[in-house]
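Subject: design request, 225 residues
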């Protein structure tokens, strides 16, 4: 292999994850990340917001280090192993955007709604993707990539997961709204810094679902009361 291939070597191993096994692995990590954030918020209590802000800063710094290709060789493959190089060229973008969605949700909504919204994006998004890739046969009329089977499976998984934290009505509205939003939002590749790139960066289900589902569940709670 030629020596000076730093740009291509930075996350070259990510290309191996285009297989079904790699996709399932990515979604398992995504699901466990959601569980981790729920447990972290529960364990840290009133300090949760500050802990999440520190974690957000850590992810940003780590992403910058990966982009500059200055990580130790033993750590670099581990940290950016689960990316999609053809669609997502910012390391740890998923975690960064998920925190961008969780942090304002924690400020705006009651804690149980925050837990439920994280469960929706963690369980619903993961199950939806895996189901769509493995058994999805019928494309949604408004999407070339998402399937009816994947979206329905995501709604069911998100509903069951969010039932641990909110009422059935809130869980149904939040999970249905969140997964329908997921079905119309695709990953956006950002290649240059400008206002349009910033919009594309945040046009992501990891960021939008916690806020959107949380808002739907909050409104449902108001009507229930």
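Subject: RE: design request

Done. Sequence follows.
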């Amino acid at each position: 292999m030629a020596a000076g291939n730093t740009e291509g070597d930075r996350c070259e191993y990510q290309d191996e994850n285009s297989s079904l096994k790699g996709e399932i692995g990515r979604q398992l990590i995504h699901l466990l990340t959601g569980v981790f954030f729920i447990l972290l918020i529960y364990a840290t209590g009133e300090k949760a917001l500050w802990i999440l802000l520190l974690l957000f800063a850590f992810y940003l710094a780590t992403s910058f280090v990966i982009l500059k290709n200055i990580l130790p060789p033993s750590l670099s493959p581990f940290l950016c192993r689960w990316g999609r190089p053809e669609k997502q060229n910012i390391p740890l973008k998923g975690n960064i955007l998920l925190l961008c969605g969780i942090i304002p949700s924690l400020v705006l909504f009651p804690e149980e709604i925050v837990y439920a919204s994280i469960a929706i994006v963690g369980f619903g998004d993961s199950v939806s993707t895996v189901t769509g890739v493995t058994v999805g046969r019928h494309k949604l009329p408004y999407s070339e990539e998402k399937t009816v089977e994947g979206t329905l499976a995501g709604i069911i998984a998100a509903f069951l997961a969010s039932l641990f934290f909110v009422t059935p009505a809130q869980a149904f509205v939040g999970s249905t709204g969140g997964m329908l939003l997921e079905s119309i939002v695709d990953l956006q590749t950002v290649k240059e810094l400008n206002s349009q790139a910033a919009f594309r960066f945040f046009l992501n289900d990891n960021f939008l679902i916690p806020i959107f589902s949380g808002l739907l569940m909050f409104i449902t709670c108001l009507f229930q009361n």
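Residues 1-10, 12-18, 187-194 have pLDDT under 50 and may be disordered.
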